[in-house]
């Protein structure tokens, strides 16, 4: 079963800039993890993100436009996986606290999708955007565990199955989700920068910083449970030779 999960991960793609494994994680006190207080799900987006969304419309390539669809599905996957596993492990800090941040991530991508779908400057006639089905759907009304992209659907199913084995496996699932998220955002940020799409670059850069915080939260939780290398084995299982350093 875990081989199937590995195939799903590799299908989406996971490549990192790496440093040493084991002990390479930043000390917990040095990591800006702001997960102690749950985020109010009715709260407005951070000012930097809202300003970017309200800013000028960028000219998007088909690939960059489709990145909005992909990240919409991927941020929903993180939110749904963590909420599902939190039911099984109600005392697991990261699984219970991080979904509030993922809610904000989904909202940010949803607002970008609204911005470009509603703009007269964007022609979507020949561009496939499967995630637009939930453009105006409140997050609470989205069908959890159901996605528009087949690879993400399979990944969700595999990760929930793995996480159901034990709390340790659930925390490892969190590591994997954040590894995927950071890699994809790295690619899309570079793409947005090359296209002078400042709004998308700003939003995705903010989301990536949050994903790093989440990664180190899962790493710390694993270490506290006796897994000395934290998230490192998860990264190594994806074919890497070392583990990601902090942003």
Uncertain stretches:
1-43
The total strand number stands at 2
CATH superfamily caption: Ferritin, core subunit, four-helix bundle
Instruction: Please tell me the overall pLDDT.
Output: 79
Q: How many domains comprise the coordinates?
A: 1
- How much of the polypeptide forms β-strand, as a percent range? under 5%
- Please give the CATH architecture: Up-down Bundle
Categorize the overall geometry: globular
Strand order in space, largest sheet: 1-2
Structural class: mainly alpha
Gyration radius (Cα, Å) is: 17 Å
Helix content: 55-70%
CATH topology: Ferritin
Total number of helices: 8
The CATH class label is: Mainly Alpha
Reading the helices and strands in chain order gives: HEHHHHHHHE
Largest sheet: 2 strands, antiparallel
Fill in the keyword field for this structure.
mainly alpha; disordered N terminus; Ferritin; 247 residues; 8 helices; single chain
Explain the overall architecture.
The protein is mainly alpha-helical and 247 residues long. The protein has one domain (2-244): Ferritin. The protein is 59% helix and 2% strand. The chain contains eight helices and two strands; from the N terminus they run αβαααααααβ. It has a two-stranded antiparallel sheet. Helix 2 packs antiparallel against helix 7 (198-224), helix 5 runs antiparallel to helix 6 (167-194) and helix 6 (167-194) packs antiparallel against helix 7 (198-224). The longest helix is centred in the last third of the chain and has 28 residues, at 167-194. It is globular. It starts with a helix and ends with a strand. Mean pLDDT is 79; it is low at 1-43.
């Amino acid at each position: 079963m875990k081989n199937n999960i590995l195939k799903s991960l590799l299908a989406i793609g996971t490549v990192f800039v790496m440093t040493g494994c084991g002990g390479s994680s930043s000390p917990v006190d040095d990591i800006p993890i702001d997960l102690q207080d749950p985020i109010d799900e009715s709260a407005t987006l951070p000012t930097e993100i809202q300003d970017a969304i309200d800013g000028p419309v960028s000219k998007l390539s088909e690939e960059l436009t489709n990145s909005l669809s992909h990240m919409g599905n991927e941020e929903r996957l993180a939110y749904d996986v963590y909420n599902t596993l939190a039911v099984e492990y109600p005392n697991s800090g990261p699984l219970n606290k991080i979904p509030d941040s993922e809610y904000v991530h989904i909202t940010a991508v949803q607002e970008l999708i609204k911005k470009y779908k509603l703009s007269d400057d964007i022609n979507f006639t020949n561009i496939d955007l499967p995630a637009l089905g939930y453009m105006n759907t409140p997050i609470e009304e989205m069908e959890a565990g159901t996605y528009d992209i087949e690879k993400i659907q399979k990944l969700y199913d595999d990760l929930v199955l793995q996480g159901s084995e034990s709390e340790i496996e659930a925390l490892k699932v969190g590591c994997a989700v954040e590894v995927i998220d950071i890699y994809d955002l790295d690619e899309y940020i570079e793409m947005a920068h090359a296209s002078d799409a400042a709004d998308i670059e700003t939003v995705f850069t903010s989301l990536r910083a949050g994903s790093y915080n989440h990664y180190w939260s899962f790493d710390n939780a694993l270490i506290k449970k006796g897994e000395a290398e934290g998230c490192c084995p998860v990264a190594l299982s994806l074919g890497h030779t070392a583990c990601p350093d902090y942003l």
